[in-house]
């Protein structure tokens, strides 16, 4: 996947400021960055959901904005703030998504049953999506994104709000998927997670890419990815002397009514 000179501004603010990215196929890739770094904006432009102001994106051999249908047939997306058809059951949702993807009915049934089983949703498959928990929604969203066996899967914060058991289940499915040669790109600000899952990372801050490459290379001599990340994004010197000196101590010393 190649991203060239990609820009997006909201009013005067550049959310993504001219990024260059070359992501290898068949890898587990983490896009990391602090809140507001531009990860979601980048993933939205890369997956054809948000039109860039400038720049090009090629995914799975096609230009996302010149040939969106070709790209969308080859990718799966689990977006942030996932919107699902709430009044369908999980099973119906997968059936519907499979048919939208042009898969034959019998194949949709087979794949849906297997995905529901592996993701531990078989027992809830007839429940309406509106009644699913946050973790269940992530899992049914993941099942819908995998149903057509995409070449590349994009996940925006896939583990947010997910309990450890469900996270382990999702992780297992993703590891199996990448072992077969497919590519996963996911965004997160949880460094431990990225470090344990990914073999390739891109670090983003304030709309720019600060580093990209194999995990070991980006981590360099730092003890952890977290440490390397804090150095890269220039964090750590945010609290001037005296800031928040009123905080703590159970409300004493406010000088108000004392
Ligand atoms: N639709 C929008 N309108 C205005 N500003 C936006 C919009 N979407 C994003 N932004 C701004 O662009 C910047 C990047 O936001 P983005 O959501 O891409 O960051 P992020 O790295 O995904 O953050 P987080 O980890 O908190 O989800 C932020 O300053 C945000 O306020």
Write up this protein.
The chain has one domain: P-loop containing nucleotide triphosphate hydrolases (Rossmann fold), CATH 3.40.50.300. Helix content is 34%, strand content 23%. The protein has nine helices and ten strands. A hairpin with a 2-residue loop joins strand 1 (2-10) and strand 2 (13-22). The structure holds adenosine-5'-triphosphate (ATP).
Helix count, DSSP H or I runs of 4 or more residues: 9
Poorly predicted regions? none
Question: How many domain modules?
Answer: 1
> Given the helix and strand composition, which structural class is it?
alpha/beta
Percentage of β-strand residues: 15-25%
CATH class: Alpha Beta
Radius of gyration: 21 Å
- Give the names of the bound compounds: adenosine-5'-triphosphate
Describe the structure concisely for a colleague.
The chain is an alpha/beta fold.
Detail the topology: elements first, then pairings.
Elements: E1 2-10, E2 13-22, E3 28-32, H1 39-46, E4 54-59, E5 62-63, H2 68-74, E6 75-78, H3 90-100, H4 105-118, H5 134-146, E7 152-156, H6 164-179, E8 183-188, H7 191-197, E9 200-205, E10 208-214, H8 215-219, H9 225-232
Parallel strand pairs: 3-8, 3-9, 6-7, 7-8
Antiparallel strand pairs: 1-2, 1-4, 4-5, 9-10
Helix pairs in contact: 3-4
């Amino acid at each position: 996947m190649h991203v060239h000179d990609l820009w997006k501004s909201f009013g005067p603010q550049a959310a993504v400021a001219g990024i260059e990215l070359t992501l290898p196929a068949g890898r587990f890739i983490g896009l990391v960055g602090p809140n507001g770094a531009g990860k979601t904006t980048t993933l939205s432009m890369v997956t054809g959901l948000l039109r860039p102001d400038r720049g090009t994106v090629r995914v799975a051999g096609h230009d996302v904005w010149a040939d969106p249908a070709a790209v969308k047939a080859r990718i799966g997306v689990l977006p942030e703030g996932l919107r699902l058809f709430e009044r369908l059951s999980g099973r119906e949702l997968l059936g519907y998504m499979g048919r939208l993807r042009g898969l034959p009915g019998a194949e949709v049934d087979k794949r849906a049953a297997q995905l529901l089983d592996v993701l531990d949703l078989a027992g809830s498959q007839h429940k309406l999506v509106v009644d699913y928990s946050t973790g269940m929604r992530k899992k049914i969203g993941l099942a819908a994104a995998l149903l057509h066996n995409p070449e590349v899967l994009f996940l925006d914060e896939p583990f947010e709000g997910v309990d450890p058991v469900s996270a382990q289940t999702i992780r297992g499915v993703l590891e199996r998927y990448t072992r077969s040669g497919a590519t996963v790109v996911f965004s997160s600000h949880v460094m431990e997670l990225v470090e344990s899952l990914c073999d390739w990372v891109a670090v983003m801050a304030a709309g720019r890419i600060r580093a990209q490459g194999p995990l070991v290379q980006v981590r360099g001599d730092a003890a952890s990815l977290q440490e390397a990340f804090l150095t890269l994004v220039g964090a750590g010197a945010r609290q001037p002397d005296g800031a928040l000196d009123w905080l703590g101590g159970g409300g004493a010393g406010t000088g108000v009514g004392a």
